[in-house]
Amino acid sequence: IILDISQMIKGFANLRLSYLSVRCFGAKYDLAVIGGGPGGYVAAIKAGQRGLKTVCIEKRGSLGGTCLNEGCIPSKALLNATHEYMKAKHSFPKFGITYKELGYDYNQIHKQKEEAVTGLTKGIEVLFKKNKVDYIKGTGKFKDKNNIDIALNDGGKDSIEAKNIIIATGSDIAECPGKPILIDEKVVVSSRGALALPKVPKNMIVVGAGVIGLELGSVYARLGAKVTVVEFMDKILPPLDDEICTAFQRILKKEGFNFLLGHKVIGGTVGTDSAKLTVEKVKGGTKQELEADTVLIATGRNPYTDGLGAKEVGIKMDDWGRIDINDHLQTNLPHIYAIGDVVKGQMLAHKAEEEGIAAVENILGEKGHVNYDAIPGVVYTHPEIASVGLTEQELKEKKVEYNKGIFPYMANSRARTNHETDGMVKFLADKKTDKILGVHIMGPNAGEAIAEAVLAMEYGGSCEDIGRTCHAHPTMSEAFKEAAMGAYDKPIHFQSSQLFRELSVHNKTLS
């Protein structure tokens, strides 16, 4: 007798899947979460921890949503790998480290990315089991206000009933405005396609100078691609602080980026291995043709509710296709909540996570709350950019009187010894009370440093609170402290005239 072990394992797996489908059919739950992204899976785990009988419905077949599978995590894996390559190429000689030959293995770069993604998605499944959260792989659709029909990924059907429901269906890629050129994920790609390009393009056009465009543009620029960024607005990273963005653009130009700001795409043709775009100035002007072997459309994302049946059961939506919610994250049907990219606010994974926990707390009759004034944002380029609170231009528009403190990393001892002096820390504080209104960082590990600012703002802290807190020496964090000191008094390690003189010289060098 010859036993085919692989067939036996496959048979047991199918049997187990069928059993789960039968067991779950018609089951009743305290909470059903539709969507297994950062908001959805965190809400499901929190509900399980708090004793609610919970099920999470996810159609992708792997948990973590766009963020983990084709967004935050894989992009950071590529950004980190390519940054290490650039560090070896440009920084090692400064430290006296030499090598005979330096190159990269493109396939290995993507392999380590996939390993990170797989490990993390499997980890969430383990957390579900530990917290007794049922996981159904399939597409959920409202049958009525409390019942959800599910088309299982294996071809079967299921149905569940829930006292409470959280919609966490996330967002999907957006086409180029006006659709002058369409995404085919071969030549014209979205962020999804850009994470899995079969080879490094020689020339790359990025439509959109937001976070996604600049991060993925950085990946391929570091590997040798000539990157041209077309942006409708007159600045990169439009929502962020102008002063930070201006300095950052100079750095990107030094890295080889070409920018066409205040431009829009009005037409294009796509071949088998290249594309041509026609662009013109938004305010009118001469048209010009651009050609590249890869075009990345990074013009934002749209809330995803396709096939959900939300409207059919009476859930209200706004003109942007987002689900309307109140301050408690409830829809107009009080037992149905919505969180994350599918509702108003920034499309950020950590914002969705906070909303997921708050929604569960509200379901339990507690006072779940999210402080939207203290949600940080990070751009994971090099240097990184991180910010929380209001920008300087927003304060001016609101006619708020404020003080400003800036400290450049070039005046920080640890940054100098590490040869990472690009960037600055910027504090904005109320002129009368010194309350922190906004913090903006461009520099190494800015995404980690911003947490101190978020904590301070969460507790209504002042710049003086930061300035009088001891920070270890020598550390990058001292730049954070000294910037805060600059907003209410004076920093120790530079004079204002010195700052502007050094920044001027630095900017000329970058130009």
Overall morphology: globular
Structural class: alpha/beta
Enumerate the spans where pLDDT stays under 50 for 5 or more consecutive residues. Answer: 1-24
Order of strands across the biggest sheet?
Answer: 1-2-3-4-5
What profile does the largest beta sheet have?
A: 5 strands, mixed, barrel
DSSP, total strands: 21
Residues in helices, as a percent range: 25-40%
Quote the beta fraction. 15-25%
Radius of gyration: 25 Å
Tally of DSSP helical segments = 15
Query: Could you give the distance between the termini?
Result: 76 Å
Give the averaged pLDDT, no decimals: 93
Keywords:
24% strand; disordered N terminus; alpha/beta; 511 residues; globular; 21 strands
Chart the SSEs and their pairings.
Blueprint: H1 5-24, E1 27-34, H2 38-49, E2 54-58, H3 65-70, H4 72-91, H5 106-130, E3 133-142, E4 147-152, E5 157-167, E6 171-173, E7 188-189, H6 191-194, E8 203-207, H7 211-222, E9 226-231, H8 242-254, E10 258-261, E11 263-270, E12 275-281, E13 288-292, E14 294-297, E15 301-303, E16 336-338, H9 349-363, E17 377-379, E18 384-389, H10 392-397, E19 402-408, H11 413-417, E20 424-430, E21 436-443, H12 446-458, H13 463-467, H14 477-488, H15 496-510
Parallel strand pairs: 1-2, 1-5, 2-3, 5-16, 7-14, 8-9, 8-14, 9-10
Antiparallel strand pairs: 3-4, 4-5, 6-15, 11-12, 12-13, 17-18, 18-21, 19-20, 20-21
